[in-house]
Every structure is written in structure tokens, then in C-alpha cells.
Amino acid sequence: MVRGPKGFSEEEKSALRDKLCLECEKRWALYGYKKTSISELTAAVGISSGAFYLLFSSKEDFFCETLVRVRTRLKETIMKIIHTNESKEGFVEALNWHFQEFERAPFLYDLGSPDFLAFLNKIPKDRIDEMQFDSKVFFFEMVEASGLSFKIEQEKVYEVINTLLYTVELKKQASYDSRWVFEFLISNVIDELFE
């Protein structure tokens, strides 16, 4: 598809944006923001670096769009899992999938890493506000969609689940499988949190 930048139709531009964002997501998860280069991404999808700037205004704009797409897909997939099985089991299945996504793409949760902070420092404040993801609000939407009732104070339940999701960090320090640890913990605590 080696065409001049002005030769791309709107449909082709949209398809290229999609391909670039998917490639960015893979490389961001593997190498981080700083080590993900535009020239490697454009080569992977078969366009020039110059054509990239007809699709996105900057590397930061591109990464913002990629992050928004990833988070949107994360939310949609979680809710799809829950709507397939609106129960405690469906909620646990969605949490297990969520944990696996955290394992696959650390940039989704490791917002305090030097790499992610380097990314944030290059983005205008209004764009940062636009990308905000309120995990607490989404958590309560998940609970409601699952039809669950709290056994203990809902804020405590949120903190317990949030803490369990962060066991993904054990992967860096432990010799055992952090996914097994998460699944074990969630299956043993879920009945203490919800009716």
C-alpha cells in the first residue's frame, strides 16, 4: 500500500489509524513509551513516517488515542463478560480477564512508572483530563451489571478488589504465578464481599 500521503482515502486513513494503534499497543506493552518509535510502527504497517503525521498530529496524540482505545475495549469486554453471566461467577470471570489484561499491558495500571510519567509530561493538561478513567465508577457499574449486593461497606469492597488486582505487580518479584495467586485470592474472598 505504498501510496502518497495525499492519496489515502478517509476509509484508508481510518484503517491505518486502527492498524497503527494496534501495533502501538503491542510495542508499548513490550518496550514502553520511550522505546516505541514511530518509524518502526509505520514500517510495520507499510507507510512512511511522513504519512504518519497526516494521521496523527504527534507521537503523544497517537499514544493518547491508543490508550483511550485500549481502555474502551477493556471496559467493553469486561461488561460483555458480565452481561453473558450476570452473577457472582460472571463478575469473577470478568475480574480474571481484567487481571490478565493488566499482565499483558502494564501501561494500563502502572501510571506512576518513569516511562508513563515521561508520556504524561508531554501531554497538555486538557488531553490528560480527556483520557481520565475513573476505575471506581467503573467498578460500581460492574457490580450493578452483575446484580450483586454488598455484604460489607462498598468502599471497602472496592479497595479489596483493587488491591487484589495490583497483585499483578508480584510478577516482577515472585517466583510463582501471580495469576494463580489472584484467582485463588478472589475465589476465596468473593463470598465475604457479596451476597
Description:
- The chain contains ten helices and no strands.
- It is mainly alpha-helical and 195 residues long.
- Helix 5 runs antiparallel to helix 10.
- Residues 1-5 have low confidence and may be disordered.
Brief description of this entry?
By secondary structure, this protein is an all-alpha fold. It has 10 helices and no strands.
Give the SSE map.
Elements (H helix, E strand, L loop, with lengths): L9 H22 L6 H8 L3 H7 L3 H26 L3 H17 L9 H7 L4 H7 L3 H12 L7 H12 L12 H16 L2
What amount of the residues lies in strands? Answer: under 5%
Major sheet characteristics? none
Radius of gyration: 19 Å
Number of helices: 10
Structural class: mainly alpha
* N-end to C-end Cα span: 56 Å
Shape: elongated
Beta strands, count: 0
Low-confidence sequence ranges: 1-5
Order of helices and strands: HHHHHHHHHH
Which whole number gives the mean pLDDT?
Answer: 88
Percent helix range: 55-70%
List keywords for this structure.
single chain, 195 residues, mainly alpha, 69% helix, disordered N terminus
